[in-house]
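Two records follow; treat each independently.
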Amino acid sequence: MSTPVRPTPTGAAPTATAPDAPAATGAAPQDCPRCAAPVDADPRFAVWCPQCEWNLSPEPADAPAATRRAVAAARHAAAATARTDRLYEDIAAGRPAAVGQRAWLAASVIAGVVHLTTAALCGWGLWLLVTGNTPLRCLGAAVLAVAVLLRPRLGRTPRGEGVLDRAEAPALYGLADRVAAEVGAGPVGVIRVDCAFNASMGAVGLRRRSVLTLGLPLWEVLGEQERIALLGHEFGHRVNGDHRQGLWLGSAIHALAHWYDLTRPRGHYRDAVGLQLLFQLTDLLLVVLLGGVARLLLALLRLLDRLTSRAGQQAEYHADTLAARTASTGAARRLLRTLLLGQAVETAAARARAELQSRPRASRRGPQHAPAAPSTRTAATPEAFWERLRDQAADVPALEHERLLRRSALERGAVDPTHPPTHLRLALLDRGPELPAAVTTTPAETAAIAAELAPHRVRIARTLLAG
């Protein structure tokens, strides 16, 4: 049976509930100061009222007043919200939600201008080097240097720390290949792990070799089927028609973002002792010369985002569908709810770091200097650190799950700006059929994958404990 969709305040989209979330522990009842309804106060999480939504999203008391720029940003956000809601309704109703040809053509033209600009600078620099005199050759060398600086970054195959090859991780690659085959994608090129509470699929080089990045904190708190759902979603990006991941458009977007970052004045040296006036004049000159260029590049980036956001969000919904088809609808739903728990996992990591810092220095030297029995392990050891993260994620009460879902609806919370709001992704899964799992793992396969990740688990735990 599909998870029910809860009614939300006026103007908010529907949110899915978390019926299988764990019950609250250590909660103390109190009355809501707004509507006087009884609420449960868990000291580990924000206290809020499910009836009137008091304190649903706490704001600082000294929030700054709205400025003209803030008002413009709010209008831009409101327009983006309206487009996101229209796309959700179109997909939920089964109406065609394909990107218009005009939007795709306009985005391709902008990408062409970006690539032609780099090619023109490169050609001009070479022409000056070949045909010019000495001053012009110097100018040509400078132009070539600028062209190299502005070139599109296609990425390189990652190597070194965090990268697993097929020889050392056959079980993990085997599972990834099974999931890829299920969604219709090719085998993964490279798998790597990092410290993020996230995962991503990218492509590097002219051959667009696929790179799957798994954030180990997220991987560790997921169950087996949720991990398969995560893989199904990420491999779904290889087949969901998102042109922003392609060579032509994707490289142009990254190049524009790089150009904007280069031209945006920062004023790092304004407070240097004895040189304030010189650096302030330099900053003023940079603002005059580059400020207009930076604003133009930012406008182009926003235009590209508007032209491609519908296709990108539609691709995310498609990837969620593929995750449900691969691991089951319930697993895909639990994965999305877990993605809302980043703050809880961060809190667990902070507590583990505090515990480590409070221990005597002699006990931090390592197991060869201060061996400890397994029964006395604390959250300062790598294995106990992961246990604490898993326990923290599993111990989030149902009321906190509900608050996070409603807050996602109120604040339009998403994994990142390229994704649809998480509550809409959950609501769309709820409106679809309950699909069974097409890919599962055996206990032996799970144990083999854990053994392959063991060295990285120790390394990343130490990194997170060190802060």
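The next record belongs to a different protein.
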Amino acid sequence: MQSDIEIAQAAQPQRIDAIAEKAGIDDKYLEMYGKYKAKVDYNLLRDNEHTPGKLVLVTAINPTPAGEGKTTTTVGLADALAKRGKNVMVALREPSLGPVFGIKGGAAGGGYAQVVPMEDINLHFTGDFHAIGAANNLLAAMLDAHIHNGNQLGIDVRKITWKRVVDMNDRQLRNIVDGLGGKANGVPREDGFDITVASEVMAIFCLATSITDLKERLGRIVVGYTFDDQPVTAHDLHAEGAMAALLKDALKPNLVQTLEGTPAFIHGGPFANIAHGCNSIMATQMALALGDYAITEAGFGADLGAEKFLDIKCRLTGLKPDAVVVVATVRALKNHGGVAKDELNEENLEALEAGLPNLLQHVENITQVFNLPC
């Protein structure tokens, strides 16, 4: 049996301009990143009136080391609907380099239900995460420059809450002391790095509905507190304009395709345990505008990612899923039933039965708490 990467590398994807044409995207909105990737100008939403399609949310039971297959199911469902002649769009999150190079791996699906070019998507892609990291670290640099140059706002360096970011799971940088090297090299203080996808800029990026909205949200970021405990914002440092300038191209959704040639937007990727765990609002709205069906997903289990999707993203945008898919694999259910990871391939009906309440609770949350078809 071929591995995921072997399947992806053996595929012969269509040119992205052909995928864009299939999705109904006019060439004037398309910005090519080689043959198989493109950005779509967000002015497409402003310039064209569309009847929104039906929104399908894919979620899962609680995560296990065995994996639940949300992305694989999302892609497979979209390809199946497309095979039946439906006009379908996919909207997914971008993978972070941290999990890719850690134990979790990539996030482009699996088997024959993948998005391609898989290696690009899992690595640098179109540079969105680099732009988000640069915007985050620009604010950090402006904060420290303000303190270094007289600290007119009276910021207490013991009460700074803003961290720098790097898109890597580098625990060595989580808590550091910087500003060393004498007067010319800043003010010594405790500092630290978060992973880029766990940053507030990433969450803001995915919740923004326009470049103007993005700039306003960036301006409200609290970076620390003054000596008399007053909050200091990015707007106080006059940072939001420059941050938005770094993000103006990243804000355009990325268009790729599944192995079956179904158009897919992959854009933004906040962690669900830190933020709301959904792809960008702009990509979802674009998928709904272009497709009769938009298939999207939310990170972690239904008790985390799906609830954040419904309580945060949907509340902000007025969206409401027309259907919710809860993914549960037999291996994951056996794991919840008490079976160790290295024994999950063995038949164990008793453990499977013991794990079923986990699935049933998630289904109950979706159908009873949120009153949505599951």
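Discussion point: The radius of gyration is 22 Å. How would you locate this feature using only the token line?
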